[in-house]
Specification:
CATH architecture of the largest domain: 3-Layer(aba) Sandwich
CATH class of the largest domain: Alpha Beta
Distance between the termini: 56 Å
Number of helices: 10
Radius of gyration: 18 Å
Structural class: alpha/beta
CATH superfamily of the largest domain: Response regulator
Helix content: 40-55%
Strand content: 5-15%
Number of strands: 7
CATH topology of the largest domain: Rossmann fold
Shape: globular
Order of helices and strands: EEHEHEHEHEHEHHHHH
Strand order of the largest sheet: 1-3-2-4-5-6-7
Oligomer: single chain
Mean pLDDT: 83
């Protein structure tokens, strides 16, 4: 076991949300784990990590549905780790759990791909509800964070966000008329992962179809249409 690296279980039922806790302070991790597991067994903590890099390694092994991520950690910080997770494991949702409520941290976290931002003072019930909501495709913001920065965060134009390199690759294949299953084979990924990439692309562009996505991507100079011979 590495410092801050603990695996609790690898057996998760279909109706349970698997959670990975990432924080460099063991006492914080223990407190978060207690709050997460204080209710019924619908949420299962499958592991803990003490750094951003350990989190990425754990995700490869455990495939959690939700990651609870601290920001200030040695080496790869929580924002960098969130960005990496969003690119490498788009099907995994990240909730930032931090003592910082500054708008720049919230903005950076959401731009990196976080699905939520909660303060570490969050009550157990609210934390559990947020985990389930995010796992079901929603988002989560602590009330104090929302009051302070929601106006600024909501003003971030989704179309101003840049695609990741993987999203760009997916878009180029979509522009060639390749199906999700074929894209998955081409990129050596699962179809579920490609579908997650497509959802992220749609969200960034504010579109609802592959045709709209390709049209917008060309207009924004994200990709070029394939040459027609």
């Amino acid at each position: 076991m590495r410092d801050g690296w603990r695996v609790f279980t690898s057996v998760v039922r279909d109706n349970q949300v698997a959670v990975l806790i990432v924080d460099d302070h063991p006492l914080f991790r223990a407190g978060i784990r207690d709050r997460v597991q204080s209710g019924d067994d619908s949420i299962v903590v499958v592991g803990e990590a003490g750094s951003g890099q350990e989190a990425c390694d754990q995700i490869r092994e455990l495939r959690p549905a939700v990651v609870l991520m601290d920001i200030a950690m040695p080496g790869m910080n929580g924002i960098e780790a969130t960005r990496t997770i969003h690119e490498m494991f788009p099907e995994v949702d990240v909730i930032i759990l931090s003592v910082y409520d500054d708008d720049q941290y919230v903005r950076a976290a959401l731009e990196a791909g976080a699905s939520g931002y909660l303060l570490k003072t969050v009550e157990a019930a609210e934390l559990r509800e947020s985990i389930v909501r995010v796992a079901q495709g929603g988002s989560a913001l602590s009330p104090s964070v929302a009051r302070t920065v929601l106006g600024q965060v909501s003003g971030i134009p989704q179309r101003g966000l840049q695609p990741t390199e993987r999203e760009r690759q997916v878009l180029e294949l979509v522009a060639r008329g390749v199906s999700n299953k074929a894209i998955a084979r081409e990129l050596f990924l699962s179809t579920r992962t490609i579908e997650a990439h497509m959802r992220n692309i749609f969200d960034k562009m504010g579109v609802t179809s592959r045709t709209e996505a390709v049209t917008q991507a060309v207009r924004l100079h994200w990709i070029r249409l394939p040459d027609v011979s």
